[in-house]
Design brief:
It is a single chain. By secondary structure, this protein is α+β, with helices and mostly antiparallel strands. The chain is about 25% helix and about 40% strand. A six-stranded antiparallel beta sheet has the order 1-2-4-5-6-3. GO terms for molecular function: acyl-CoA hydrolase activity. Keywords: Hydrolase. It comes from Erythrobacter litoralis. InterPro entries: HotDog_dom_sf, PAAI_dom, Thioestr_dom.
């Protein structure tokens, strides 16, 4: 293996770990029992524990929770390909396929296309029985915000 390949892998790993720290540092994520794992370029996994505190009146998780899980998984999958800028969600379509009650939910994100200004990524939610409970596709755009300017992204400033 050449030095450039090793450096590329090392800088990708550094970026992936920094994205995980960024997720953990976001104030909104203190409200959720969740953890982000970047699996590689264009791939993310979030594990959420859904509780009754996010139920609607009919006793299942409110749709805002589906959006949060799906958007985060797709967003972080896309942001693995943007190593300099924070991405912004510009649109997101989601489909509910099954109500979810309390338990573990895995959100899997996958980059689909785009590498310059606009990125497209998709995500799916799987409940603890292994059933798909939701699916989404998002469009994300590069912002003017440098990742290196965000305290959560910079090493040594996590949680």
């Amino acid at each position: 293996m050449n030095d450039a390949g090793s450096h590329d892998r090392s800088s990708a790993e550094t970026h992936h770990r920094a994205l995980e720290r960024l997720y953990a540092s976001a104030p909104i994520n203190a409200k959720f029992d969740s953890k982000l794992e970047i699996l590689g370029e264009g791939r993310s996994r979030l594990v959420f524990t859904v509780g009754e505190d996010v139920y609607h009146a009919a006793g299942a998780a409110h749709g805002t929770i589906y959006f949060k899980m799906l958007d985060d998984a797709a967003f972080y999958a896309a942001n693995t390909l943007a190593t300099d800028r924070f991405l912004l969600t510009t649109s997101f379509n989601l489909h509910f396929t099954k109500p979810v009650r309390a338990g573990r939910v895995v959100a899997e994100g996958r980059w689909v296309s785009g590498r310059r200004r606009v990125f497209v990524a998709e995500s799916r939610l799987v409940d603890q029985e292994g059933d798909e409970i939701g699916r989404g596709t998002g469009t994300f755009m590069r912002s003017r915000i440098a990742l290196s300017s965000l305290p959560g992204y910079v090493e040594g400033s996590s949680e």
